[in-house]
Amino acid sequence: MDLQLLKEQTQEIVCDILDKSALRAGSIFVLGLSSSEVLGSVIGQNSSVEVGEVIVKTILDELDKRGLFLAVQGCEHLNRALVVERRLAEEKDLEIVNVLPSLHAGGSGQLAAFKFMDDPVEVEEITAHAGIDIGDTSIGMHIKRVQVPLVPLQRELGGAHVTALASRPKLIGGSRAQYLADPIRKY
User: Which SUPFAM superfamilies does the protein's record reference (predicted)?
Assistant: First the structure.
């Protein structure tokens, strides 16, 4: 796999999703990643440290520019726990759990997060504002309600299907209510 091309495509996809999601500084962005799927294999069957590192580092760099936090979802072997910066876990009073990811329990994305984050920890769960799912890893459980599907500019990264979610406040009040403009749907 051409890692430079992977970096460029990841950057293009994540910038597109960040622009569409209307996040504010301090918001949390979840990444679900199957490096196996990116390589065209079945999820969990061909994990790649190099692919995970390119994707996570590229996304972290873009989020840092915007003052956003990254949470990297692990696989089902870690009950979909997430790697975040310790300061985020402490600030949000998230439940820190004691586990270190490996290539086949947590995955390449979590290993890369431990490599590139300043002070990474695993947390049991999170409520994020938006996220990207590279390889159908099911990030929806970590995105705040009301979830809004976003259609990425590119719907594939390597061999992986790419989807994304943002969130917006609930609309309440019924037929007499008026609402603020929706920055995501823009209607």
Answer: TTHA0583/YokD-like
How many residues are given for the chain?
187
**Amino acid letter for position 85:** E
Helix axes 108-116, 49-66, angle to 10 degrees: 50
- What's the whole-model pTM score? 0.93
Element (H, E) at 186: none
Verify cis geometry, omega within 30 degrees of 0, for the bond prior to 49.
no
Residues of the chain with pLDDT under 50: 187
CATH of range 1-120; options 2.60.40.10, 3.30.70.260, 3.40.50.10360, 3.40.50.12280: 3.40.50.10360
- What's the number of CA atoms in the CB half-sphere (13 Å) around residue 98? 0
> In the prediction, which pLDDT does 187 show?
44
Are 103 and 48 in contact by the 8 Å Cβ rule? The answer is no
SS3 118: coil
CB 64 within 8 A of CB 19: no
